[in-house]
Write a structure and sequence with these properties.
3 domains, two-stranded antiparallel sheet, 4 strands
Length: 393
Amino acid sequence: MGLLFGTALLDVGALVACLIAALYVYFKMSISYWKERNAPFINPTFPFGNIRDLMLLSKPIGHSFAEIYRKLDGEKYGGFYTFAKPGFIFRDPEIIKSVLVKDFSSFQDRGFFIDEEFEPLLGNLFFLRGDKWRNLRVKLTPTFTSGKMKMMFQTLVDCGHELGTILEETANKGEIIEIKDILARYTTDIISSCAFGIQCNCLENPDAEFRQWGRKIFKSSALSMIILSLSALAPSLVAFLKLRSIDPDVSNFFRRMVKDTVNFRENNNFQRNDFMQLLIQIKNKGKVDEDNKSFEENDNGTIENKAGEDGLSIDSLAAQAFVFFLAGFETSSTTTTFCMYELSLHQDIQERLREEIDVVLKKHEGKITYEAIQEMEYLDKVVSGKVYSCKNV
């Protein structure tokens, strides 16, 4: 029995060794891609290529690719490897401009494998590819015009007043606050209202249901990134193993919430100036109500008017609202948190910003309006990180 067990172990060991050797040979053969094309590239290492730190979670994705970018210093472009799969980075501003404008239709795919039936919330503008992506982009482009953003502005103002009330109460009590948490609740209130058409009142209630589900999304973000990376590298494996990048409970919650909101509005003929209402228009009419036209992209990347008829399914509508939440919630709260921190360190910038706000609001009778915010050029520079304290000059 012992001899048989030992022989079995040797067989398994030999099989594993052969598998590793085969993978190594495949890796060495694959990483000749950029060399054969005489393109500058970063030498990869087995088995991760140039993304070892990213896959081992020792560096965030932004830092990992910033490092790859810096290693190509002096080049207009260059290649790298995700495992054995070749990737490409553009560095020259003119080439980047061509990719993002003139040749954008040729660079639309993110390279991720998704199964919309298995994970409906991934059927959004960020993950779709090919004609599905193009058709959806045509429908969604009119929802992000300045006019549509202006339409939703009052929701932001209302949430801002509530934020001011809470901060004033806290200041009067002399309490210490965690500003990032408060700003996260603030952005959650805004986006839940605009994207999902619900009042979740996270500012008043930190444990509101919507806020809890929002936290749950980002708690699993590391695992989600690994699964999404695998979907780009080994789509067949992801499909075979039925790996999910979104928690099924999270998916069910957001889809159910969107379905209930849409049913309520349609059954009660209720309308509201928010992103959800624009999505409902696309769902029912195939386009946003704007001069009875939708938009189509030319070969040169510009947009022209062209009527469309196909609408959105409820799941597709939920997917767009979901990615709107993901893109706006954490990014906005984190940016604002850092901005507040820097303002607390640089009183001179804070005073100049306050002066601009007071002057502009006086012109607008003390009211915070879309037009007033547009006039605050120094505010834009502060939020964008384009100002420097005179103490540091």
